């Protein structure tokens, strides 16, 4: 880089991106600590919340919603099944498809974990006016759309 070329960290968009990334990382750290009494981690919470919302979702649909590979899901689900949080059932119409359901214990843990997450978000963002929260959400949704387009264009 020459003297006349600005450095990445001097660029407002770069600063914005780094701030979002740091906030996400720190939130994951705090959320991990807060979820510890339930003996789950944020990836488990992501699965539980999706099963709570979309009962009977397939493993493939879950992986797509979570933006992870099916192998990541395939490694985590057996642990959660052994813990009695979820159960996998064959699809009545397509025997190759496994549908995912919360057990009663899974529903109980999901509700407690969602309350922990909601309380944490409220605590962290309570000083931020709602209109600013909505503006941040809108901006991040545009970033998500741009990134999804980028991925689609490259056939990933």
From TrEMBL:
It holds the Pfam family MarR_2. The keyword DNA-binding applies. SMART domains: HTH_MARR (SM00347). Residues 1-145 form the HTH marR-type domain. Keywords: DNA-binding, Transcription, Transcription regulation. Gene3D superfamilies: Winged helix-like DNA-binding domain superfamily/Winged helix DNA-binding domain (1.10.10.10). SUPFAM superfamilies: Winged helix' DNA-binding domain. This is MarR family transcriptional regulator.
């Amino acid at each position: 880089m020459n003297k006349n070329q600005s450095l990445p960290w001097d660029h407002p968009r770069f600063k914005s991106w780094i701030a979002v990334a740091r906030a996400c990382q720190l939130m994951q750290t705090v959320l991990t600590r807060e979820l510890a009494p339930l003996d789950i981690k944020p990836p488990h919470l992501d699965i539980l919340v999706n099963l709570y919302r979309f009962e009977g979702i397939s493993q493939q649909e879950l992986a797509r919603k979570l933006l992870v590979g099916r192998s990541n899901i395939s490694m985590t689900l057996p642990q959660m099944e052994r813990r009695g949080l979820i159960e996998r059932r064959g699809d009545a119409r397509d025997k190759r498809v496994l549908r995912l359901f919360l057990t009663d214990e899974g529903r109980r843990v999901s509700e407690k974990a969602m309350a922990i997450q909601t309380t944490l978000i409220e605590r962290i963002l309570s000083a931020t006016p709602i209109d600013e929260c909505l503006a941040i959400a809108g901006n991040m949704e545009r970033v998500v759309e741009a990134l999804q387009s980028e991925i689609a264009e490259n056939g990933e």
